Amino acid sequence: MEQERNMAKDRKKQSRDKVEKFILSNTTKQDRFKLTKKIKVATVTIALIEATNVEIDATEEKPRVLFCRFRLGSEKYKSKTIKCHSTSEIKWQELFNLNMFEDNHLELSLWDRDSCIGRAIHDLSEMEKEKTHKLRVNLEGEGPSAQLFVLLTVTGTSTNSLIDLDDYQVSQRRLSIMKQEFAWYHLKSESKDVGALFVIVYGAKGLVSNDNYCILTLNNARVQTHTDYKTNEPNWMKYFSFPVTDITSILEVTVHDEKRSEDVAKISIPLLQIKNGEKVWYALKDASQRDRAKGNNPRILLEIRVSWNFLRSAIRVINTKEENFLEIEERLHRHIFARNLGRAKVVVAWILNAFRVAKTLFEWESTKSNLIALSIWLPFCWFFKIWMLPLLLLIPFAWYRPPKYYLVNWKRYFRRGIPNEESEENSKKDKEEKTSLRDKINNLQEMIQSVQNFLGKAAALFERIKNLFNFTVPFLSFLAIFFILVIGFVMYMIPLRYICMIWGIHKFTRKILRPNRIPNNEILDLLSRVPDDEVLLDIQPLRLEEPDRDMIN
């Protein structure tokens, strides 16, 4: 009996094996791989900014060596190490992407060499998807509670996908609600948002690589699509929404190759230059945004809508600009140094040309120009009042305005060409120095790096002033004109002595009335919204090589 039972078990096992072999023989390798492969739910993007409330003993000679670790399921990452003597130096400004499968608990920990200072576990299931969250995470440890400042985004999910017409209609209804919320007559709002941005990423064509996904960045907000594998014509069909805190912001669209882990294409689109509600093919640039991206006329199809409140945006422009937490100072590099030096030379030439024009008016080099200038100067001096002083700032706007704002083209009587001097790079061979001169070299590098960054900032400031006058961003130029007219009207209505008294009282009492205020300069805040020439090159669109009739299947 027992022998018969064993024979029956063997027959059942053999029949079961035959069935499994039959099933596997009719299953493709790809399907078999899918059975064992983990299903990726989303991508968790962590921007590690800084750590605060970390105890550091100033009497210790050895610096603390700090780093962070992140763990999400089987995904583990480690930040770079930082040697620090004070809490102000604990800044990483690093970006990490973790694949999210089934585990929703993200572990964050701060380490000093081999000892853990503190750790925390964050539940990602409670977070809103496709939105960047600014978090200050308290770490639990033996000592005082340290704190990590991170930007956390759960993105690349299957939600917000345009599968059919119903999904598109839902997105349109959301847009109509946003339009009503940011209508011009809605001035009072608890949030700092001045508008809302709505982006539909349809797909791309002509890319040089496969396995691509698209990243959208607006200030500190960063979201991305899923990866479309094994095709250089991805079809993402995803929509995103962003809160707009500054209408002068720039939307950055990046196409990233997941396999090679590099950016293959990028474009920058100012919100004020968006063609609202239109499907537009944008020609893609390379990562430097100076040349066309590699591929067969690479392009991306986007539909962008922005709804914003004009009055709230105008007030926001003269307040402190939002800090980009991932922006770091450029390291010393001879190409950057030469580029910034060339930019500074152009700005200096622009200023010298303005003085040269004024000098020609006094030197009577052109009789016609001098007679016109004199006929304007004498009545101006005769009728001049102090309230007219800010109105003098309208002259550069009138001088540098583009042709579409001309009423009478009188500029040809005055204008002299600004010299376009090409920046010359100093081609010097790199020399290797001995180790004994290391300190001198480090000091020299720090000095040159400071000069390089100063030149870049100075050139950017004067470029912004120039671009404000020539209506590069008409919204800001007209806003500046409006402010100038208001200042002139106030100075006309109120005597100067009262204005000076009010200004003095304001300056002396603002620290008492507003002790926690953030110091700012309204003029510099306005100029910070104007793009410099480098940004203008970034946002310069490319002409498509093919008709705009391409459609994503």
UniProtKB/TrEMBL annotation:
Q: Which InterPro entries match?
A: C2_dom, MCTP_C
Q: Record's Pfam families?
A: C2, PRT_C
A GO molecular function annotation here is:
calcium ion binding
GO cellular component: a single term: synaptic vesicle membrane
Which terms under GO biological process does the entry name?
A: regulation of neurotransmitter secretion
Q: Which UniProt keywords apply?
A: Calcium, Coiled coil, Membrane, Metal-binding, Repeat, Transmembrane, Transmembrane helix
From the record, what ranges are coiled-coil?
420-447
Annotated C2 domain ranges read: 43-136, 196-283
Q: Where would you find the membrane-spanning parts of this chain?
A: 376-400, 471-494
The entry's protein name is C2 domain-containing protein
Origin organism of this chain?
A: Manduca sexta (Tobacco hawkmoth)
Read off the lineage from the record: Eukaryota, Metazoa, Ecdysozoa, Arthropoda, Hexapoda
